[in-house]
């Protein structure tokens, strides 16, 4: 999954961007430009406090966002109308766990969907694919580095707030993210229809710790297996629709999680199953690799990003796509069968792992 789109903020959602000042906060200042390079350094426990400015409101609306990740699965992405460093309560946001996604509304945390093994909805893994993003015309280095919240970061331009497959960088609309050496987003500036519509900047970054002054909101209850989303059900175990794929082995240095089966139905006609699949997930600290094999409706859309051709040793012809959650390998087989491999690792490493997948026959 990817970071919650900044567009959500305009509608009262979560993810934000630069703006305003905070008592004791250090303003962003230019520093020496560093080369654009990929990295797999992903801290497992992170908390970032952002101050957000929504320029579509009159006067400009200021809010705060607190993104707390216990990677790869657990995350809270909460919004505040007043400074959370002064002990205020969150006004909204989302909570992701391995199994369910919750929404915080009016102080109540309610389950809104089942959740297969994936990154938190506010998380990203852009830093592991930067060189490929640039070579495919999906991003470019702006040539500016900043110091934000005491950390250095480099500005990278996208066509819009990255959320899922990354579209080509065309036109005048753009979203500038400042990424530090561990891939954390320290600032964002979104220009839409030639106007700056949203900014956010990190005012506090905690790696391996959380700020005790911040009130986190209610904790989620135990997740159900189906969730309240009528179009998605998740349960432990494998699905017969994935029997065509030999069970994947964990990548070196990764530990296997319990496989889960996923059933997708037509929300307007719950009795109509459009897809069944199995997801195998493998974890190493803050890193995640998943393999999903299924039958039915493809879980990706043709043309959603610029893809590259790949040939896998075991499964044959494939394509690679670059998403906000990291690279993805897509394999479309005969008979409505498909496989996709996602990871918070560089594309070359993910292809090498996908080469090991094989047909069960």
Can you tell me about this structure?
This protein is mainly β and 361 residues long. 5% of the residues lie in helices and 45% in strands. It has two domains: 7-207, outer membrane lipoprotein receptor (LolB), chain A, CATH 2.50.20; 232-354, Protein Transport Mog1p, Chain A. A hairpin with a 2-residue loop joins β19 and β20. The protein is globular, with a radius of gyration of 20 Å.
CATH class of the largest domain: Mainly Beta
Could you give the order of the helices and strands? HEEEEEEEHEEEEEEEEEEEEEEH
Total domain units: 2
Helical segment tally? 3
Shape by Cα distribution: globular
The CATH topology assignment of the largest domain is outer membrane lipoprotein receptor (LolB), chain A
Radius of gyration: 20 Å
How much helix is in the residues?
under 10%
Walk across the major sheet and give the strand order: 1-8-9-10-11-12-2-3-4-5-6-7
């Amino acid at each position: 999954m990817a970071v919650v789109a900044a567009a959500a903020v305009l509608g009262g959602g979560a993810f934000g961007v630069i703006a305003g000042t905070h008592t004791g906060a250090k303003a962003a200042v230019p520093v020496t430009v560093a080369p654009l390079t990929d990295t797999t350094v992903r801290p497992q426990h992170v908390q970032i406090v952002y101050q957000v400015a929504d320029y579509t409101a009159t006067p400009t609306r200021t809010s705060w966002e607190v993104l707390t990740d216990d990677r790869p699965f657990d995350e809270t992405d909460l919004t505040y109308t007043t400074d959370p460093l002064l002990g205020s309560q969150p006004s909204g946001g989302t909570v992701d766990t391995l199994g369910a996604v919750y929404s915080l509304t009016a102080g109540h945390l309610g389950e809104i969907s089942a959740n297969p093994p994936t990154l938190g909805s506010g998380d990203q893994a852009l830093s592991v694919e930067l060189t490929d993003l640039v070579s495919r015309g999906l991003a470019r280095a702006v040539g500016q580095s900043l110091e934000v919240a005491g950390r250095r970061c480099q500005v990278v331009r996208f066509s819009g707030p990255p959320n899922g497959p990354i579209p080509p960088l065309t036109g005048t609309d753009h979203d500038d993210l400042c990424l530090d050496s561990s891939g954390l987003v320290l600032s964002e500036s979104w220009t839409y229809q030639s106007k700056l519509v949203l900014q956010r900047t990190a005012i506090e970054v905690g790696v391996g710790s959380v700020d005790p002054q911040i009130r986190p909101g209610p904790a989620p209850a135990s997740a159900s297996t189906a969730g309240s989303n009528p179009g998605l059900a998740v349960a432990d175990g494998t699905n017969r629709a994935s029997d065509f794929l030999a069970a994947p082995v964990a990548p070196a240095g990764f530990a296997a999680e319990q496989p889960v089966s996923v059933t997708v139905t037509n929300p307007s006609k719950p009795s109509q199953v459009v897809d069944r699949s199995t997801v195998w997930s493998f974890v190493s600290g803050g890193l995640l690799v998943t393999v999903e094999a299924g039958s039915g409706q493809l879980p990706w859309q043709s043309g959603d990003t610029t893809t590259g051709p790949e040939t896998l040793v075991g499964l044959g012809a494939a394509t690679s796509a670059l998403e906000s959650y990291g690279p993805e390998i897509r394999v479309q087989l005969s008979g409505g069968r498909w496989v996709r491999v996602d990871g918070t690792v560089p594309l070359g490493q993910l292809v090498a792992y996908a080469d090991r997948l094989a047909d069960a026959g």
